[in-house]
Specification:
The structure holds two protein chains of two kinds. By secondary structure, chain A is mainly alpha-helical. Chain A contains three helices and no strands. By secondary structure, chain B is an all-alpha fold. Chain B has six helices and no strands. The chains are: A mainly alpha, B mainly alpha. The interface between A and B is large, with 39 and 45 residues.
């Protein structure tokens, strides 16, 4: 009934695609974090599949929750891209401090 | 000769100042904003409380639904106003609040469209998803460089 492998393959491809778009230089790290994210949501997906089979979740509700995980995968990729940009800014700040320190020696 | 040395020192200093100004103006992402952080944490709590009440019909919580929707819109507009360097945070808010998506914006639309209370299993699941979505926004904001 449920093809988890296909779902994870689809989800993983989406996460990688966004990571490439948003932060090409950091795609390796973003993919690794994306895989960690997928491992973390597996338990939820299995639980919902069981609740669906037991009739506790309607088909529409089940699909809504699964689509929510896809939205979360996009958010995870964006967060990782943002965190990479923050790391770039921290390097930039360190360079500013270095330049200011060097300029101070000229005075 | 002495005048030449005097000329050289200010030029290097000017170059340093120019370099600092260029670096300061080339930030990859906006810095930490306590207003954004507070909006995310406040709205997370408000959203999760409302989701817990969604076993009722939406008509019983019409004012709370509208209030949350307005606050979401205000938060999104605030993030948009920071410009392109804030695009990661802006896009996170857009996904969270999209009425055609499957997180908070989509949930509010679904609840109102169906016009009935939602099942406990669904509310537990959507609460988890929405909580995780807010955590992404909060995580990014809290890691930004503080002035």
């Amino acid at each position: 009934m449920l093809d988890f492998d296909a779902f994870f393959k689809d989800l993983k491809a989406g996460a990688v695609e966004i990571a490439k778009k948003e932060a090409t230089d950091f795609v390796k790290e973003a993919t690794s974090d994306g895989n960690a994210f997928l491992d973390a949501v597996k338990a939820d997906l299995k639980k919902w599949a069981r609740q669906y089979a037991e009739g506790k979740l309607s088909k529409e509700d089940f699909e809504f929750l699964v689509k929510g995980k896809k939205d979360l995968a996009r958010m995870e990729a964006l967060t990782q891209a943002g965190l990479a940009a923050i790391r770039v800014d921290r390097i930039r700040m360190a360079m500013i401090d270095l330049i200011i320190a060097a300029a101070g020696k000229l005075v | 000769m002495r005048a030449g040395i005097m000329d050289w020192r200010p030029r290097k200093g000017v170059m340093g100042i120019v370099a600092v100004v260029c670096l300061a103006g080339c930030a990859a992402i906006t810095g930490y904003d306590p207003t954004s952080y507070k909006a995310a944490t406040d709205l997370k709590a408000e959203a999760l409380i409302l989701i817990e009440k969604a076993q009722d019909a939406p008509t019983q919580h019409a004012a709370a639904i509208e209030s949350l929707r307005i606050k979401l819109r205000k938060a999104l507009e605030y993030e948009k106003g920071k410009g392109d360097r804030n695009r990661f945070s802006r896009e996170l808010w857009e996904i969270l609040s999209d009425p055609n998506g499957s997180l908070l914006g989509g949930f509010l639309k679904k609840w109102e469209t169906e016009n009935k209370g939602q099942s406990p299993a669904f509310l537990e699941g959507i609460g988890k998803n929405v909580g995780d979505a807010f955590d992404r926004i909060i995580e990014l904001e809290s890691h930004k460089v503080k002035d």
